[in-house]
## 1
Amino acid sequence: MTAKPSSSEKGGPSQNKPHADPKGFVYLATAISALGGLLFGYDVGVISGAILFIKQEFSLSPTMEEIVVSSVLLGSLAGAAIGGVLADRLGRRKLLIVTAIVFGCGAIGAALAPGTITLVAARLVAGMAIGIASFVAPLYISEIAPVAIRGKLVSINQVALTSGIVISYLIDYAFAGSQAWRWMFAMAVVPAAAFGVGLLFIPNSPRWLVARGHTDQARAVLEKIRSPDEVKGELGQIGQSVSQQKGTWSELLSPLLRSAMIVGVGLAIAQQVTGINTVIYYAPTILKFAGMSSAPAAILASVGVGVVNVVLTLAAMQLIDRVGRRPLLLVSLAGMAVSLFVLGLAFSLPQFSSSLAWIAIASLMVYVGSFAVGLGPVFWLVLSEIYPLGIRGRAMSVGTIANWGANLIVALSFLTLTQVLGKPATFWLYGGVTIAAWLFAFFLVPETKGKTLEQIEAHFRTGKHPRAL
Ligand code: BGC
């Protein structure tokens, strides 16, 4: 990368004196960036409750309802597409600051929307912020994290994301009595403001600084987030890897990067086509299919599903640097496949119909728990680890586009699939796809635990098989 240093892009606010507690400072910077994950989860989850009242107030047709609901996904796709170049040019931190403002505008816009068009526009705007934050927050955290706890720190973003989903359900529930759907959207301003203000107090990514030629500022940042004896070695490693790269778009297509692209895009698609968002977006509907007739009970059960998602993500966070990414991923996909087959079976056997609701709840819990302990956090983590520094933002954005694109396709096709194929076959189809994803992970996904980002990059440059890492 050849851009000139600019005075506004120094090491960030606190670059001059070593920090008393380097690890504590890394945790603080992680927590602030992870508010991006929280907003991602909140903004995706909030619509499930809000749509019930919007539908009435704006007299939406089913098609318009679908457009209002899915506009956020379209926006995310656009955000993922533009975020890569911006992350490499502007820097991770500055882009996240812009994103916090966009989150705020999206929330206020939706809260004040006089009609459907403005509401869709506001949701597109919020979606753009989600699409950017979804990968730039893990990217930033991965680049500031010490190698031994990188998995844990990046997974904090997924913990925040899953918490954001639950918080949005609870806020929806709190405002449902007064039908105050505008407040449901408006509440996102609070974390957006905390995110934007907090980001002013954390440093730039030292890796991005080196890539832009600001080695002195990078050293100053490392002095704040590492112990004194680690700074020189890490700076040397980063400098060496930067000297080997061109940092151009064409590098993305180079044969040496091909296997990293296949791993990232493959995992991105696998994370969605195995069906997680049919459950996150439609849990109450699935439970109603299973005979749970009361809507409040179905909504409450979906809060339960959300809580399982948070708790098992917390477990993953504790395990990911100890047992590694691959074992969690493989166990996760296996658990998802089994629970999908059980769910399909429960829907297909009439003799189970009396206990169907319970089997459905149990399988959904096992399914979501399995996702949370592996595929959920591992995808975003591995995506942030496998690409070379000079084009990391752009390469991650390609994987993120694949993720949001697959998300949109699954969200739009799920209900139609249950009508065309029937419920059992729909869940079996996801189950079959999950087995394919397991094989993909088994044969292609490398173990990145304990390796520095520079070691991972050097491995991919040799052109050796990803699993030989
Ligand atoms: C996925 C989202 C999903 C969420 C659920 C994330 O890792 O990318 O699509 O809604 O996990 O926890």
## 2
Amino acid sequence: MEERINGTLDKLEIKKINSGICTGTSWFETHGPVIMSEDPSTGREIAAVQSASYDDYDLMIKGAERAFLEWRRCPAPKRAEIVRQIGLKLREYKEDLGRLISIEAGKILQEGMGEVQEMIDICDFALGQARMMNGVMLRSERPDHKMYDQYHPLGIVGIVTSFNFPMAVWAWNTMLAVTGGNVVVWKPSSRTPLTAVAVHKVISGVLSENEVPEGVFNLVVAKSSVLGDRFIEDRRIALLSITGSTRVGRHAAQLAGKRFGKVILELGGNNAALVMPSANLDLAIPSIVFGAVGTAGQRCTTTRRVIVHEAIYDKVKERLVNAYRQLESRIGNPLNENTLIGPLIDSAAVDAYKIAISNALSEGGKLAYGNSIVSGPGIETNNFVMPTIIEAQNHFRIVQEETFAPILYLIKAGSLEEAIAFNNDVPQGLSSTLFTTSLAEAEQWLAEGGSDCGMANVNLSTSGAEIGGAFGGEKDTGGGRESGSDAWKLYMRRQTVNVNYGNEMPLAQGIRFEL
Ligand code: UN1
């Protein structure tokens, strides 16, 4: 195992101590504290990053400002040609990068590689989008006037990512932003800095071969105590895309709001799966299990609540518990092929798991399965937890919260209407799903009185969204959208253009103003 890890680090050119700033192909000498990255599965130190000081960051931003002036003049399809080549490089390094995600974030290899695939997919998406970043011709009410809208780049786009998707979220934002003519500054989670360093090593060849100006693709690894608020407050950052907890997002939105900074927020979820009596349980049960325990419950799209019609409640409970039993032998090192559930990211996450379970039980919840720290052969740290099912009620304080751990609350509902009301009766509004074979129920769920979430599914998991759709959610999830559909527009400055090609001065609204 140790050899395989070292092999991956070597291939990705991860050194013992790495610089915390990259501007494309150059790496700065950085002056902030050293951040050591640890493997959550083994507790072993992987490698370190010498993080950036504020002055290092400032220098980098000055370069990004200069790069923007050049990059914005490069035609979008030419910019996307770089993105296309990045996509090819990512294909080449898919397994290595996927393995590094497993090592540093603890995700199973399948999910690590799936994450790299998301990056490849968004490269392809952005490539197509490059020739379709269209505005529309609008109808002027005035003779000899032309009116249309067009989309210009904003400038520097700041991207703050979380440990649980340490590469893909950067790619969703970056590929659209740079195709649109922006430059990006990526601040990854301090818990997963090496994946960010590795991505930059992998793409640097493409950037140098194509003579992409330094300062278009920037990476800054910095402690939040050094750069957190100052990054958000920095007027030079035209748009901030932030993925993280609702608490972090609320704080950032308030700070950015003071300077009217644009933000895309992708915050906490509290995603429910509704199960109706007509549901195909052979499909529903594995979908719920994947949603609830995938990435050890550390996705913002993780299924946290199962809201089951009372007529099938006991059956669904029994089948879920049986499925969970089969998972016991599948918890372990995420690099092993047999593993379906890796570790939580750190001991604080394990504490949050324990506290949430104890709160749920003290509020009247009933443990149906789990509630233990996993130990045994091959388990080297206390970061592995047993996926847990608790019978609960929707209004429990703990059920209303997002705990980043594999805890599933089982909730009984008397009707579809009640189940929908429960789905919506939480502060968050990211993802949701309904299992049914009734067309009427499915349409009721998708109608304006149905799910209030940014994503509403029928007969598939709450997690594992494709990049082609707009990703994000409402309420405490922050309202942002990233990735597919027309999310590219959020990275652009919309400009409405009016041209008078006549010799008269007709005023809108028929106003007469004669000298
Ligand atoms: C996240 O957890 O921050 O839909 C992103 C999914 C993934 C992305 C999750 N495609 O589960």
